[in-house]
Amino acid sequence: MDRLPDKQTLLDHHKERHFTAGEIVRDIIIGVSDGLTVPFALAAGLSGANATSSIVLTAGVAEVAAGAISMGLGGYLAAKSEADHYERELKREQEEINTVPDTEAAEIAEILAEYGIQPHEYEPVVNALRKRPQAWLDFMMKFELGLDKPDPRRALQSALTIAISYIIGGVVPLVPYMFIPRAQDAVLGSVILTIMALLIFGYVKAYFTGNNPFKSAFQTALIGAIASAAAFSMAKAVHP
After folding, report:
1. What is the pTM of this model?
2. What is the DSSP secondary structure assignment for residue 211, as one 8-state letter?
3. What are the per-10-residue average pLDDT scores of the chain (240 residues)?
C-alpha cells in the first residue's frame, strides 16, 4: 500500500502564487491616472487660451506639486481613518467578548453555520476559540466584521505612493512644453505623448486588476482624451 504524503510535502509541492500588493497597486493607479489626466487637461486648456509654453509649464508644475500634496494627504487620511476604525471596532469586540462571552460564542456558531457546517462539527471549534482569547478576537474581527488588521505603516506609505505616482504621471503631458516654445504646437505633442502613456498605463493596469488589457487601455485613453478635449474647447470658447 502506497504511503500518503504528509501535509508539509503537499504544501511544498503546491506553492500558490497570489498577488498581495493590492493596496500599493491601487494607490499607484489612483496617483498615475489623476497625474496623467489633470495636468493634461490643464495644459490643453491653457494652450487653447493661447498661453505660452512657459506659462503652461509653470502652471503645470504648480498643479502637479499641489495635486501631489493634495492626493497624498487624501491617501494618508483615508488610510488613517481605516486604521482608527479598526481600532475602535477591536476595542468594542474585545469588550463584548469579556462582558457577553456566550453571545459572542453564539455568533461564532452562526458564522460557521452560514458555511454549511453542522452543530456537531462547529461546536469543537467554538470551544477551542473560547480557550484562546486572541484567536477568538481575531476570528470575530475577520469573519464577523470583515476587517483585516491594517499595516501601521500604511498611511504614510499610501501618501508617498500616491504623491510620487501623481508626479510621475503629471510630468508626462508637460514634457513637450519644455522643448517647444509655442504652446499651440506643443499641445499636439502633449496629446500624442499622453495618449500613448494612457494606453500603456491602461494595459498595465489591467494586468494587475484582471481586466481585459485592450479594453482597459482604450477606456483609460478615452477618458484622458475627453478631459483634454473638453478643457481645450472650453478655453477656446472663452478666449477665441
Report:
1. 0.74
2. S
3. 50 48 79 84 79 88 92 90 88 85 82 79 80 82 80 87 92 91 85 86 77 80 74 63
